[in-house]
Amino acid sequence: MAKKSEKTLVIVESPAKSKTIKKILGDNYQIEASYGHIRNLPTKDPKTDNLGFDVNNNFEPKFEIIPNKKEVVKKLNDLSKKFDNILIASDPDREGEAIAWHVRQILTVPDEKIKRIEFNEITPKAVKYSVEHPREINMDMVQAQQTRQILDKLVGYKLSPVLWKQMGSYNLSAGRVQSVALRMICEREDEIEAFIPQEYWSIHAELSKDGKTFEAELSKYKNKSIEKTIKNEEQAQKIVEELKSSEFNVSKITKKTTKRKPTAPFITSTLQRAASSKLGFGVQKTMQVAQKLYEGIELEAGAVGLITYMRTDSVRVSDDAMAMAKAFILNNYGEKYYPEKANIYVKGKQNVQDAHEAIRPSYPDKTPESIKQYLDNDQYKLYKLIWEKFMSSQMANAEIANKTIDITAGDYTLKAGTSKTVFDGFLKLYNDSEDEQEEEKEAKIPDLNQGDKVDCNKINPKQHFTQPPPRYNEASLVKALEEHGIGRPSTYATIITVIQTRKYVEKKDKALHPTILGRAVSKQLVEQFSDIMDYKFTAGMEEKLDKIAEKKAVWNKVLKEFYDPFMEEVQSVMKTAHKINIETNIKCPKCGKPMLVKNGKNGSQFLGCSGFPECKSTMPINVLKEQVEQNEQEQESEVSQEKCEKCGSDMIFKIGPYGKYLQCTNEECKHRKTYHKSTGVTCPKCEKGEIVFKKSKKGTVFFGCNRYPDCDYVSWYEPVKEKCPNCGSMLVKRVTKNAKKLECTNKECSFTKEMEEE
């Protein structure tokens, strides 16, 4: 702490912290804010190719004061001359370290007056300790941040013009990380569209003993798993008939008590995911509310910082916090709720940015209920989530009693099971499951012993369809980015916001859907810049930034290694880049030509005629969305030529969340069947069925007869309706890197011809 006679200026990033820190440090300290960054790379600088750094001079950056921060800079400079000491207390991460360095650069006072301090939580102990232990600015962290800044600007400034040239809009942009995130969303959409649901059946038996009923599910046939192997109703019905004539006996009872351990307190990504699944918060909203909780909330005694710093990928918890948690747990829940040894968590990943703490309450004794009156609704919900997660992470394991019962019926084995919480432990406060509907299977099974005979009251076959992977929501996208090592805690919210702002992605019922524009942009970038759009390449660059911060790599060497091949690729693409159009199925009402997706000057989208400038017809972009919805409704009511296999009624197409299927129109039947897209080509083997698109277990598309298993014809190549002019056999498409051709399936016929461009 400063001497009583000395006056100290403390410079923070946000004015919201000022009251909280002022209350802790007292009258000898004046708190002022830089309001975030005060300098940035210039937007235009002819000497540095408009990038703000000199490629020919080791990428030396040339920073300038942000225009709207000139008054802030003047004020900080004037104040700094009136104080004995200056402490720069920007946030405890790379971005904060860079802000501290920029503030130092603009202050015209001697070096010995300026020091850097940091604290992970705004509490008296943490703030006073940092004041008593000031340090120098960490230039390795600053250089890591600057390298990221230069990389991001380099990629954005060089890739975006490619999109402008090809897609005719200056509102488009590309980014080193945002474009990879967009690729993830587009590829997931491709998977969903290509997915063909596969039918399977499960069989459930209603059993009873001494008047008490329970349910068991078929699990094995001759001790081999039967899961998802019953492919149609005919197979299911055959098993049902065999079970009806069998005797049901209890063959095995397994009892096991398992311990369920609490998981680590929140880091940025897990907080964002939990807030999304449990509170319905978007990523950006979560970070905004957490920022307020960290900077300080006005309680009865004044402003108090309620949580630790919310941008972190460390799960470490300080000894003081563990001691406070222990005292609270023992006093409020009793000894059995505290583990024999304190729970200590270690992050498995190697790219943890620093030794920060996890996100936790600054004062564990301040329960959510005790301060609820001082918080708005969102602040209360998020604080409660953070408090309960942290406190539960320090509690004892839960104990779950599981009982599994095997029941044999001839060659078949059915299973029934229960699970019951014997001791709730940490579950008293927080359930780690992201599924809020998760419930125990309470013991509705009667007391059974091995060898007991049970009665079979009813057997229920149930039809199911396999499901494709779900679309990303904000939380699952953050998880995917983290798993791939792409981005860092401070960037997730920005990435997700940018791709939505650019209209590359839109949110529907919390799911992220790529727009037509987003898919077109992603396709162009992936095809032309395979390295930049590669997941491993992007993750590798993040690791290099970490190494710069750890003094294990030199920042301008990292940039040089990236720059040369990148610029060669950009220049090569720009030479051959030609304008592309995003064509839709909508016809121009004036001339009948296809309408194209266009981008307006203000970033809005509309439909414009492909016959421009001869035809200047335009439409709102909503026409396209309405057509998609209308097509789905038309498909849903379309009657299929197929008849129901079960009752002979008409089958209609239905659109489910994961694609098309067929459903019987008979209200009493409601039989469903997987829909396979037809090629319209008659099967050459049985001459009765049609060749349809199918998918292997590994996701590879192949073609087979829709009468399977009665007809087992399959082919890797898509057939066409055109017959071979030489022998009349079926023709198939053969596509290689060098050629696209039609080829006769008759091995004795050598007919081939080049395919016309589609």
How are the secondary structure elements laid out?
Blueprint: E1 8-12, H1 18-25, E2 29-33, E3 39-40, E4 53-54, E5 60-61, E6 64-65, H2 70-80, E7 85-88, H3 94-106, E8 114-116, H4 124-132, H5 139-167, H6 178-194, E9 199-209, E10 212-221, E11 224-225, H7 233-244, E12 248-260, H8 268-279, H9 283-295, E13 297-299, E14 302-304, H10 319-332, H11 377-393, E15 398-409, E16 412-423, E17 453-465, H12 474-484, H13 492-501, E18 505-508, E19 511-514, H14 516-528, H15 535-549, H16 555-576, E20 583-587, E21 594-599, E22 605-609, E23 618-620, H17 622-637, E24 639-643, E25 650-656, E26 659-664, E27 672-674, E28 678-682, E29 690-695, E30 701-705, E31 714-715, E32 719-723, E33 730-735, E34 740-744, E35 752-754
Helix pairs in contact: 3-5, 5-15, 5-16, 6-13, 6-14, 8-11, 8-12, 9-11
Describe the structure.
This protein is of the alpha+beta class and 758 residues long. It folds into 5 domains: 8-137, Rossmann fold (3-Layer(aba) Sandwich); 146-195 and 469-576, Topoisomerase I, domain 2 (Orthogonal Bundle); 204-222 and 247-261 and 403-462, Topoisomerase I, domain 3; 268-393, Orthogonal Bundle (Topoisomerase I, domain 4), CATH 1.10.290.10; 583-633, no CATH class. Helix content is 32%, strand content 25%. A hairpin with a 4-residue loop joins strand 33 (730-735) and strand 34. The radius of gyration is 32 Å and the shape is flat. The N and C termini lie far apart (75 Å). Mean pLDDT is 87; it is low at 349-354 and 435-441.
